[in-house]
Amino acid sequence: MTATQLVGDDTAPTPTEPTAADVIPAPGDGSPSEATPKPALKRRRLGWPARIAGGVCVTFLLAALLAPLIAPYDPLADDRSNRLQPFFSGGHLLGTDGQGRDVLSRVIWGARPSILTGLIPVFVAGIIGTLLGLVAGLGSHRLNTVIMRTLDVFYAFPAVLLAIAIAAALGSGTSNAIIALSVILIPPIARLAESEVARIRSAAFMEAARVSGAGWWSIALRHVLPNAAPAIVVYCTALVGLSIVYAAGLGFLGLGVAPPTAEWGLMVNDLRQFTFSSPGISLVPAVVILIASVAFNVFGDGLRDLLDVKGDGR
Amino acid sequence: MTTLTTTSDADTDASPDSSPTDGDNTTTLRLRDLHTTFSSRGLTVHAVRGVDLDLHPGEITVLLGESGSGKSVTAKSIMRLYGANASFAGTVVLDGRGDLLAAGPKEMLSVRGPEIALIPQDPSAALDPLRRIGAQIVEVLRQHKAVPSRAAAKARALELLGQVGIPDPARVYRSFPHELSGGMRQRAVIAIAVSCDPRVLIADEPTTALDVTVQAQILALFRSLIDRMGSAVLLVTHDVGVAEEVGDRIGVMYAGRIVEYGPAAEVLGDPRHPYTRALLDSIPTPGVERGQLRSITGQPPVSGELPPGCAFAPRCPEAHDRCRAADPVLVDLPGRRLAACHLLTDDPDDTDTDTDTDSTAGPDSTAGPDSTGGPDSTATETSVETPAPAGEESAA
Amino acid sequence: MIRFLLRRLGLAVPTLLGVSLVIFVTIRIVPGDPVASLLGPTGSPEARVELTHKLGLDQPIPVQYVTWLGRVGQGDLGRSIAKQTDALPYVWEAFRNTITLSLFAAAVAIVGGIALGVIAATRRGKVASAISSGVSLFAVSAPQYSVGLILIVYLAAGRGWFPTGGMRNTTGADAGTVADLIRHLWLPGLSAALVPLGIIARMVRSSMLDALSADFVEALRSRGLPEWKIRWHAFHNTLPSVLTIAGLQVGYLLGGVIFVEVVFSWPGLGLVVFQSISQRDLPVIQAGVLVSALAFVVINLIVDTLHGLLDPRIRR
Ligand SMILES: Nc1ncnc2c1ncn2[C@@H]1O[C@H](COP(=O)(O)OP(=O)(O)OP(=O)(O)O)[C@@H](O)[C@H]1O
Ligand code: SF4
Ligand SMILES: [Mg+2]
Fold first, then answer.
1. What was the ipTM of the complex prediction?
2. How far is the alpha carbon of C198 from chain B, nearest alpha carbon, in Å?
3. Three-state helix/strand/coil letters over chain A
4. What ligand is nearest to the CA atom of residue B238?
5. Given CB atoms, is A277 within the 8 Å cutoff of chain C?
6. I want to staple A267 with a disulfide (CB 3.0 to 4.6 A). Which of A285, C78, C134, C253 is the partner?
7. CATH of the domain spanning C92-315, picked from 1.20.1740.10, 1.10.3720.10, 1.10.220.10, 3.50.50.60
């Protein structure tokens, strides 16, 4: 009844159609319809894994925000005499890198570009994708076909490859990486938005709105968008972890920020030459990205399950 | 908990009106005080609340009732086709196998199929969509060692397909379910069900998904198969027309209980329970239109929230104070019939009844006061001690 | 079945055109003036005009696209700036190694994903189910480069159990043998397989749960079939949709495998693209993406065909 139908259940991937790009979770992929009949009551609170994950996500965001205050050292200050110090040595909690820079400080400062390059594309793609979905879902049949078939083309690429191609063509740099990631995130979001709009459009109150002579924009903004938004927002949340991984991936390949700026992906590539000499330190940024990715995904999943409930109940 | 020798059983047996049915040769399956409760996530649904029923060889017993009255749950509880969220009480005694509710999982595997078979409601949903019909029949035959070899299984499968009236068994044998019409699919499902010569056949609305002409064919086929095999049949339906056409005996269910029981012709010809009357009145034009039992005023109760007293009281045109105070119990009526309604126990003002009439069985009076009417009150059942069936005479 | 296949092939044509268009766009969005960068600072205005004409850059965009498409159709994907060779043969050579790695990873992902998913679906409410659900969520979230580096540090560099990189030993007793290749495949294969493994596991879990709650399962149970046979029926019914997802994941492996190849110095397309990025060798990158996209379309076709074979209902 309320339109908070989740990213789930009824949009389960159809066998003949390709699902979302790369590992972008297909709408519905994480929320299987259980064997039991629809339960009348479900938990309304986040489970403990999701809550812990949420805490970790907040920690990362705080670290990014407060980097100047909490980072113990200047992330760019190199000290050749202090190269590759082990963990906990001389005030360097996570040791130092090949140029003697404090790894912990670089991780903290690195959270800024890393998380931003992950978050912004989700925002951008969320807005553009929702708009496309609205237009496709409320527009004429032909408009719908044109938009949706165009988006389908993007499903013919492995998403990462497309992002690399675009970022490489535009040249290295944070803003180009953001553009590339936005492009590959738009199609799955637009697909979800379109299916949400199609679902809402058939609801009874829409008929009432149309009969009352409301205009296109009024219908789209006052009736459809508020009902479609929760599902889209939750889906976007679930994409943040992935986007961060992709962003770091571009950085890793040299398509993100330029050295010596601290950025996680770049750090992975920079430190991996020391797998033999300082294996612990060489793993730090890789593990940080792993933790961030798991945390954002678990949190996003938990949110999906949670809102699924609200969609079913009244 | 309830065994065959409860007080009520003994009493009813002793009553002169109803012939005892102890002769096991005439009762293939005997349900006593069957309760089925579902609980999931703190919610409890008492779907079947004390059903007694006897199934006799060669006879079709119809369970009739509105949607949600617990017909399917009764039928499937016999085969224990529910998961861990269902709990049972009572006994389901299969002639020669003892209480099925107490049987182990292994034993149930050998009961399902060769002893008790099920024909589910929707034929298309009863078949694995990705397997050919032949393979699905052979699988069951092989499972229960009904045939000595693969080749014999195939021959038997083709034979079965022929027996259920499929014109070209060889083609259907090779077909996938989606390649067949609904009627053909249902015939295939019936072929699977009868493949191991079950002694009890349970059919849960076997014709609802079919159109009227096919329905009639399937019912005729059903009848002839049963006559040949001598199985005892429990047929679940909400279609009075179907009950009329093939039923030997009818049990009318309401809110998880049997409220009226007796020979088909008599129950349908002269209904004694107000609910049965309402059911029959709801058929627009008998014989022409299928009775869909929709036009009884009001809604059936939700199995979680039963009214106190008679569950039918909120919708019953003849409800009176007693109905809301105490739950009526099944009483013997003349003509080998049973019904559960206060109107049938001549007691206008006192809930603490005495046995006034010859038709009131003894245990009712003792059970009556106990029934304060909560959904959990289970103490009020007398057994449906069915009178000597037609089958007995023919068998004897 | 033939008709079904032909229709699928027909549907692939517009997809391919779309793909080519997207790649053409990525060529055109390259910032800066290609003519100026080719000529260098010393180019005269006449030379500029001549080169612009030679490159076809004075033509309208649609004409440029058609011209480019024609060249691509003949296998001409431009010349590598860094290597000074034709891009296609160069990329193709590397791509063969990528196929080897991807197939191995696909096998790991499909086998592991199905096993994990079935456990999660059938041991519901038990510890094994919780663990396998957790593992698949972790797997989905694990970036290939992180996993690769962790595996190198713990299983290769410190221990010497596996080689830290490369595809074959050039020296040693088993140099060049299949056993040697497989030894080199394990770690990169696992790194690349993890994400699709998690996705397949989740997909298997949810469709297995769906299948187990399908009506025919109750019918099978009523026929006295033992639980394992019922699960087998259910599993069989998940295969068409699982295959589709698995096939897509195999396609997407082609993307994720880039990082793995860089981390493990696997001489595949990913490594080539990585090197080309720092050299700004765009024709090679474009050729690489085009080859991958083509492979992806082909995989989808194969998956569709298999789907038709597995599910009699969709074959027409
Ligand atoms: N597996 C189950 N878990 C929980 N409740 C159940 C389950 N199966 C049935 N019920 C409940 O038991 C009650 C009786 O259901 P049942 O299916 O027996 O009705 P029915 O008489 O067969 O009706 P219909 O004509 O619709 O098939 C219903 O209220 C239903 O909600
Ligand atoms: S007991 Fe009362 S309410 Fe129930 S059926 Fe009889 S008359 Fe109606
Ligand atoms: Mg039913």
1. 0.82
2. 26
3. CCCCCCCCHHHCCCCCCCCCCCCCCCCCCCCCCCCCCCCCCCCCCCCHHHHHHHHHHHHHHHHHHCHHHHCCCCCCCCCHHHCCCCCCECCECCCECCCCCEHHHHHHHHHHHHHHHHHHHHHHHHHHHHHHHHHHHHCCHHHHHHHHHHHHHHCCCCHHHHHHHHHHHHCCCHHHHHHHHHHHHHHHHHHHHHHHHHHHHCCHHHHHHHHCCCCHHHHHHHHHHHHHHHHHHHHHHHHHHHHHHHHHHHHHCCCCCCCCCCCHHHHHHHHHHHCCCCHHHHHHHHHHHHHHHHHHHHHHHHHHHHHHHHHHCC
4. 1
5. no
6. A285
7. 1.10.3720.10
